[in-house]
Hints:
This protein has helices spanning 2-16, 22-32, 44-48, 58-69, 86-92, 242-245, 260-271, 296-307, and strands at residues 103-107, 113-117, 123-126, 132-135, 139-144, 153-158, 160-164, 173-176, 181-185, 189-193, 199-205, 208-212, 217-220, 224-229, 234-239, 252-259, 274-277, 286-292, 310-314, 317-321.
Amino acid sequence: MEENKExxxxxxxxxTERKCTQEERLELLAWLQENPLPEYLPAVEDLxxxxxxxxxxxxxxxxxxxxxxxxxxxKPVIPLWKRTGFRVAAALVPLIGLATLLLFFYRDKNDKRxxxxxxxxxxxxxxxxxxxxxxxxxxxxxxxTSPHKNQPREAWLKGEAFFTVIHQAANPFVVHxxxxxDVNVLGTAFNVNTANGHAVVVLNEGRVxxxxxxxxxxxxxxxxxxxYNADTKMLTRQKVDTLFQTSWKYNLLAFKEEPxxxxxxxxxxxxxxxxxxxxxxxxxxxxxGYLPSDNLQQAIITIEQSFNLQFILQHKIIRVNTKxxx
Length: 326
C-alpha cells in the first residue's frame, strides 16, 4: 500500500514537471477513475521544491475556476406545467405547499413573471430575451422582459441573484432593489444582494450604473463592489474577489478567516440545526475555504479534517468535539 502511495505521488510530481510518459499518464488516469485517496496527492511543499512556479494573473485564475465549476451545467428550471406528472402531483400536494418544494413560478395578468426559490439549492433559469439568472436560496424575483419599444426590461429582487444579461440597445435592463437602489445594465454579468435592507452589487463583467433614491450614482468596473447603506444613505465602492463574492452561485459558502462559531452558525441556519460546542475556545478557530450549501455531510467532513474535530449529529443538533475519536 505504501509503495503504491509513493508511486502515485511521484507520478503527480512528474506530471507537474511535464516529464510523464504516455504510459505513466494512463496509469494516473486509471488510478483517478478508481476513487482516489486524498493522502496520495503530493504536498504543496513537494511541488514547490521542484521548480519556481510562474504567477498566474487573477483574471486568468478566475476564468479557469469558473470554467471548472461550469463544466457540469446546472439543470434548467422547467415550468411546472411542462413537468412530467405535474397534474398527478397537484392532486396529491396542497397548492399552498408547492412553493416550499421547488422553485415556484407563475405569470400574472400583467405578463410579469414571478420566481420564488424556497429550495435548498441555487436555481438557474433563462428568460425569453436570453438573459440567464441564478436565484439564491430564500430569494424571490419578478421580471418583465417583454416591454414596449424603447422601454426597459425590469427586474424586482428580494434576496440575492446573479444576472448574465443580453444587451439590447432599445430595451436596457434595470434591476430594482427594495431600498431605492436601481442597477442599470449595459449587457454584463453581475451579482445583486438585498439582504438586511441594504444593497450590494458585485460586477464580474461589463459595466453597470448604480442609482439611489438619495441621488447618489456611480459606474462599476469589473472586479468592483458597490455597497449602499439604507440607514446612512451612503454609497461606497471597493475592489473585491468576485469569485469569493459569488460562490453561492455554485452552491458554495465562502469564508475567509472566519471564527468557527460564525461558520457553524451559518451552517446551522442553512441546514436547520442547532450548534453546540463541547469545549470553550473551539469556536474561535479561524476557517478559510468553501463549504457546500447543499451537502451537509461533505461540509462536516471538510471542517473535521481541517481542525481534527469530531461532529455528532443528533435530533437536529450538531455537537462539536475538540478531539476526534479514531
